[in-house]
Design brief:
Layout (H helix, E strand, L loop, with lengths): L2 E10 L2 E11 L4 E6 L5 H8 L7 E6 L2 E2 L8 E4 L11 H11 L4 H14 L15 H13 L5 E5 L7 H16 L3 E5 L3 H7 L2 E6 L2 E7 H8 L2 E7 L12 E7 L2 E6 L4 H12 L2 E7 L3 H9 L5
Parallel strand pairs: 3-8, 3-9, 6-7, 7-8
Antiparallel strand pairs: 1-2, 1-4, 4-5, 9-10, 11-13, 11-14, 12-13
The structure holds adenosine-5'-triphosphate (ATP).
Length: 299
């Protein structure tokens, strides 16, 4: 039951927000959807949910075009959070769960499990406006999964959460995947995507610029990072052939090299002159790849 996005274009007047996007989100996987502000992520989510019309192309779930009626199998955490501030948490979840066809008793049972898991069991009877922003977000997440959706779309699920809550949410997302949920999420935090996703797509101005399996994307990027800690001034290594970028760190340098073999000549050069404490080749990070493809860092 994959989600298939087939040659999808979305125009707002003369402006093309999503341009001929084709993607397959494999079932029971976690798919990372990345891109700078305004790249077209939320617009794609809204089309997948039937909230806005598609200008061209199709979005299919389980081989069939998604219609408003089929959205009961989809869970959505919108970027603009939408809870009623005056309603109590339980009433809120019962209301939203019933809209998705779940019985009140089941909603309440599931709510208690989730509140316990998110370490806020006492919040069932509090009004949403009494909760901190991060805790409101956890309630919004619970609302998006209360009907046990087959497909879960999360728009920036980790934004605004402290590190402990980020871990709680990550483990919840991983468990949902284990239980067979297909999950697509957007994030500006590359490390979350690296940790959770097998497959990903980086969007730029409405089009995918990188797409595929994370491991494969890293391998085909070619460049590597080289971490060097050494005694004394070793800045001259940043000028050696094959060094693409360099960044000074507290204990030495972090270099980007065009290919792994470049490290050999750097090591020879260094070992002639100084005592090398650390010399380590690392895979490029997703952040490195993003910066090169999109041309700007997020943070
Ligand atoms: N209803 C609309 N009318 C006109 N333009 C729109 C509308 N919705 C989105 N856009 C434009 O489409 C582009 C893509 O917006 P979208 O919200 O999909 O980006 P995004 O990738 O989700 O960005 P962010 O990371 O900032 O959330 C933006 O330039 C935005 O201004």
């Amino acid at each position: 039951m994959a989600l298939q996005i087939e040659h999808v274009t979305k125009r707002f007047g003369d402006f093309t927000a999503v341009n001929n996007l084709s993607l397959t989100i494999p079932e029971k996987e976690i798919f990372g959807f990345l891109g700078a502000n305004g790249a077209g992520k939320t617009t794609t989510f809204r089309m997948a949910l039937g909230l806005i019309d598609i200008s061209e192309g199709n979005i299919k779930w389980n081989g069939k075009n998604i219609t408003y009626d089929s959205t009961n199998v989809i869970g959505y955490l919108p970027e603009e959070r939408g809870l009623y501030p005056k309603l109590k948490v339980q009433d809120q979840l019962v209301y939203l769960g019933k809209l998705k066809g779940v019985k009140k008793k089941d909603i309440i049972d599931r709510m208690h499990v989730w509140l316990e898991r998110f370490r806020i069991p006492e919040y069932a009877t509090k009004r949403v406006e009494e909760l901190s922003k991060g805790n409101q977000q956890k309630i919004q997440f619970i609302a998006s999964v209360i009907h046990n959706p087959k497909l879960l779309i999360l728009d920036e699920p980790f934004s605004g959460l402290d590190p402990v809550n980020v871990e709680l949410l990550k483990s919840a997302v991983l468990d949902l995947k284990e239980q067979g949920t297909t999950i697509m999420f957007s994030s500006h935090r590359m490390e979350h995507v690296e940790e959770l996703c097998e497959n990903l797509c980086i969007m730029h101005k409405g089009q995918p610029v990188v797409q595929g399996r994370l491991k494969e994307i890293k391998r085909s990027f070619g460049k590597k990072n080289l971490i060097v800690h050494a005694e004394g001034d070793i800045e001259h290594i940043t000028q050696l052939p094959g060094v693409v970028k360099s960044k000074k760190t507290a204990e030495g340098w972090e270099l980007q090299i065009s290919e792994e073999s470049v490290s050999q000549s750097i090591f020879q050069e260094l070992s002639k002159a100084t005592f090398v404490r650390k010399f380590e080749i690392e895979e490029p990070s997703l952040n490195d790849i993003f910066i090169e493809k999109v041309g700007a860092s997020y943070e």
